[in-house]
Design a protein that fits this description.
Layout lengths: L1 H18 L15 H23 L2 H12 L6 H13 L6 H10 L16 E5 L6 E5 L5 E5 L3 H5 L5 E16 L4 E16 L2 E12 L5 E10 L2 E10 L2 E10 L2 E12 L6 E10 L2 E7 L1 H4 L7 H5 L2 E7 L4 E13 L4 E9 L5 E3 H4 L9
Parallel strand pairs: 1-3
Antiparallel strand pairs: 1-2, 3-4, 4-5, 5-6, 6-7, 7-8, 8-9, 9-10, 10-11, 11-12, 12-13, 13-14, 14-15, 15-16
Amino acid sequence: MKKYLIFASLLLGMFVFLFVACSDDDDGPSDMLPAGEAKAEINAANQEIMTRMGTMMNTQAATSLSFLMEMMDFYDYDDDWKTHLKSGLADFHKKTPAAIKRDFFKSFSSQKSMQGPNPEDKGVYQYNYVSGQFDLVNSGVNYLQIIFPADEEDYYNEGLNATLTVSQYEYITIIVDDYWDEYEDILPTRIKMNLVAYGVTAMDIDFTASYDSAGVPTNVSANMQMPPYALVMSLTGSGRNIVSSMSFKENTETMFAYDAKITLSADKEDLDFVEGFFQVTPLKVQGEIDGKAMNTCADNNVECMNKSLDLKLIHVEKNVILGNIEFRLYDDPYWDESYPMFAVVYADGSYDFLQDIFEMDGLVKK
């Protein structure tokens, strides 16, 4: 079951890459816009981001992968994994990386098996319109290939115009023993995937990774080509220190990016310090988080938490600061509780929660 979930997660991970661009590693701008102007710029930027993402999700690669996930009944899990994700985001400041990963996998643990082949299976599987299953039609190959309708129109015409080929899939298995539970963790070390739709290559993915005995990545290299989009990601780790960067471009224009330097705790279960930037053009969050200091703060003590933050929201094209990213206490009428949430704090001290600005309904408790 767990190995199959990894395969489903690979498909979902493609979408994470699509949704999750490069800049100078300097101190950034020093001027902060007045609150009214900053809010207007954020609203305009939000619309620009949504338009770009809508265009990207209409590519044949995104359409075909989404349709495959639906055919494999992945979306039957929607409510349960979102419930766990809501809780995880609300309590993010209190969660260790291991706890976040454990919660994600537990969201699948009590579910029925999904349709389709296992990631380590070899053979050619083809969608059967009569049974609604994926039949093994060729077992004499050393790779995994899934033949399926490329989209809804192809499905209604009973076509089979998409082919997803996993030519390499390798992984290691480690046993993780944390405070709550002992569980098996599967870590991919080599993935080569190719998606062809209507006779045209829609996506190529090449991924390699290595890990230490605790499962912390020591080297990762990822490349995805999805014309006209391309992603390049790298990570190197040594002991407690990790350096990672990613760039996602449309032709030559950067759409998404991050560059981060991370220091882990001695047991590698917590983030002691993070510095860098995360960009969704034209917006960028840049600065640092002292996770070690934040872990000493009491629940809901946002004043203490904010002393461990130095994050700014920047408009990269206009080179101005729109506000600071800080915790504010969110009073949730639905759950009848209060908890810290990230907010943009403007020059006049007013603020808006990030979930409200970027319409994150369904991803956090509301």
